[in-house]
User: Which sequence fits this backbone?
């Protein structure tokens, strides 16, 4: 499987699971569990949706109507990436016409020159790259082929699963998977099966709890992200409903570079997921604090990144949502965070001492700060309630103490 951090050094590769478990034995049981979300994917929101649509549609052609189960695995493994250009911190696999370059290859089995990592979105691995291609065929280098091979594997996995009864044929396995929902009694045995037979982490190993939670959370997340039943079951393309309750959130960057995030959510929200550019950077619950605290240190310095906060209720359904822009850079940074329904604050972090005020325009219209009542804000932030939502182009102009323009920064965000 694709190495996601140093803590995943011992993660087993797909289709080499039983051998991997026998080889690692107590090593897996004694492995230190650390946060595996250390590297960040480069797929945009639109690209993630396109990739999820392909998984759904290929699954349907094979009789599987619950494509979100596959997508949850792919998101947990590679954040839906298939090409090395989408995850450049990983290793390069063989050339793929779909990628116009190499597929992504796992980096958890040793140095890249050994060519021993898994291949593609679902991380097929039978030894080195040549061994994998001899066994699986070159179909796994294409997006659709990689998905089809994963379908074959999970069907066999369900047949072999000690957590699922009454399934002994391909047709029965498909029928069973088609009945899985994130809120019914088949979901737990599905995640148990994935954790044990796909990942190779048996319940007796210390890795089990963390990896079970990872596959569970990513599956719930992608079900909700794409719009739930309307997308996965009905085949629609609707985005999450605008009727979701708003989540207000903010953050601060510590001197060492760690970010501390917090959120204010409706009472029915029991858990939140923090996501940047479609990549989960943190999870928190009401039990951790009324403001859902979490911390994260970015590995990539980049401006204009989409940040989203998803609020889940006690049934793991998406009931609240907030979004904004974060610049994960140590210097001057623009921030946009949601404060309420249709209400956003746009401002500067770590502004130079020479900056005395800012003005903010949305699609060319000068905004008035709801807190100070001024269009030129000396608090270096403008809070505004928007009557119409949708895509907005923001211009943040900075002024010195004499009122002279120092510069203009630009960001784009779809207000939700």
Assistant:
């Amino acid at each position: 499987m694709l190495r996601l951090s140093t803590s995943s050094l011992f993660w087993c590769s797909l289709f080499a699971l039983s051998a991997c478990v026998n080889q690692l034995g107590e090593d897996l049981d004694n492995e230190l569990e650390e946060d595996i979300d250390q590297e960040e994917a480069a797929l945009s929101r639109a690209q993630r949706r396109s990739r999820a649509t392909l998984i759904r549609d290929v699954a349907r052609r094979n009789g599987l109507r619950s494509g979100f189960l596959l997508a949850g695995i792919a998101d947990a493994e590679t954040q839906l990436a298939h090409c090395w250009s989408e995850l450049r911190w990983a290793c390069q696999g063989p050339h793929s016409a779909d990628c116009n370059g190499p597929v992504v290859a796992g980096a958890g089995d040793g140095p890249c020159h050994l060519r021993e990592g898994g291949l593609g979105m679902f991380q097929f691995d039978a030894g080195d790259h040549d061994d994998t291609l001899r066994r699986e065929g070159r179909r796994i280098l294409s997006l659709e082929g990689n998905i089809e091979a994963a379908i074959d594997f999970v069907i066999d996995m369900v047949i072999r699963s000690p957590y699922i009864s009454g399934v002994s044929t391909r047709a029965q396995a498909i029928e069973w998977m088609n009945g899985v929902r994130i809120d019914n009694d088949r979901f737990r045995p599905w995640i148990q099966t994935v954790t044990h037979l796909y990942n190779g982490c048996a319940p007796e190993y210390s890795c089990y709890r963390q990896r079970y939670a990872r596959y569970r959370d990513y599956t719930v997340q992608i079900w909700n992200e794409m719009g739930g039943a309307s997308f996965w079951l009905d085949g629609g393309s609707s985005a999450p409903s605008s009727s979701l309750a708003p989540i207000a959130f903010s953050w601060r960057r510590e001197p060492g570079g760690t970010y501390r995030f917090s959120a204010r959510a409706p009472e029915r929200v029991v858990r939140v997921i923090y996501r940047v550019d479609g990549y989960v950077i943190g999870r928190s619950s009401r039990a951790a604090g009324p403001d859902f605290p979490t911390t994260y240190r970015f590995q990539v310095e980049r401006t204009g990144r989409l940040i989203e906060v998803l609020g889940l209720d006690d049934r793991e359904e998406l009931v609240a949502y907030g979004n904004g822009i974060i610049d994960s850079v140590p210097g001057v940074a623009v921030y946009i965070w949601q404060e309420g329904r249709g209400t956003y604050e746009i401002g500067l972090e770590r502004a130079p001492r020479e900056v005395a005020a800012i003005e903010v325009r949305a699609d060319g219209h000068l905004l008035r700060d709801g807190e100070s009542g001024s269009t030129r804000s000396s608090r270096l932030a403008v809070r505004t309630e928007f009557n119409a939502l949708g895509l907005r182009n923001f211009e943040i102009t900075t002024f010195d103490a004499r009122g002279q323009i120092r510069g203009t920064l630009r960001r784009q965000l779809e207000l939700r």
Summary: The first strand starts at residue 91 and ends at 96.
